[in-house]
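This section describes the prediction task in plain terms. A model, or a person checking by hand, is given the sequence of a single protein chain and must write out its three-dimensional structure as a string of tokens. No templates, partner chains or ligands are provided. The sample shown here is typical of the held-out split.
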Amino acid sequence: MDFSSTLEMPDRDRPIIEDEYIIGLFSPARLVSLARYAGLGPGQRVLDLGCGYGEALLAWAEHFGISGVGADADPAHIEWARNAIANSPYADRVQYICADATQYPFAASCTQLPSCTQLPSCTQLPSCTQLPSCTQLPSCTQLPSFDLASCITATNMFGRADVRMYPSSMFRNAIRHMKKAIRDGGYLLIAEPYYYTADVPQALIDYEGPLNTEADLIRTIRDEGFELVQIAHSDRSDWDRYISSNLYHTIRWLKENPTHPDRQRKLESHRRWQDMYVGYRVEFQGCVAVLMTSV
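The expected answer:
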């Protein structure tokens, strides 16, 4: 199952009370706290892959004055993010693009750099002064000039097409892909679901997939040449907010669509969602956010 699924709900997964808002099983405050240890500040750049509705970038722009790029393959996510940023003080510093984040082009694939001069306006990139006529470029996002690259509960996109890639390959592939984006000494921030133990009921594995344990994640970080800087775990209240937001929007949809042909299917999914949470996920599944860098 897609960990970040909102049960195919047609409307925004936003709680009624703003204080209850959550981004991929973490509060905005928790993500801001983690990013602080990456030394973010004005003039630095962040890339958020699988950015969803773009809230993490907004939070970091507000607290640290960074600029950034968010990439997500869902047009509805990007449309919402662009509308949210349009009238904000950060509109000139944060960009959202609708694209497959696994195919995001970095320096290694930037074969156009010599001919980049025909493209319009790149004044915000510090390294752009090294390129001839770079002020004519519209966006040099192919340069590995990000100070932080993040992926918040979205690494499934690095292995979704092949179930053989479970359990460790998605996390490993995310690190290998994202590290192309950062400068030397830069940081990666990844939030990832995991199992508390390797001994997990088959019913949960069938529903959620064979996830890593936390020890697996730490080993993978080291194997890929990084060291852990900070770690944060979602707690029961985070899970409750995440699950409850989905439940609330499903119930609202069911009330508003009494004759919809998908109503019964959504009701069954709604009940199974509850059963898996209280019967298995509470006991066996967690979510951890890790900040890493090379030393």
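For orientation: The chain has eight helices and seven strands.
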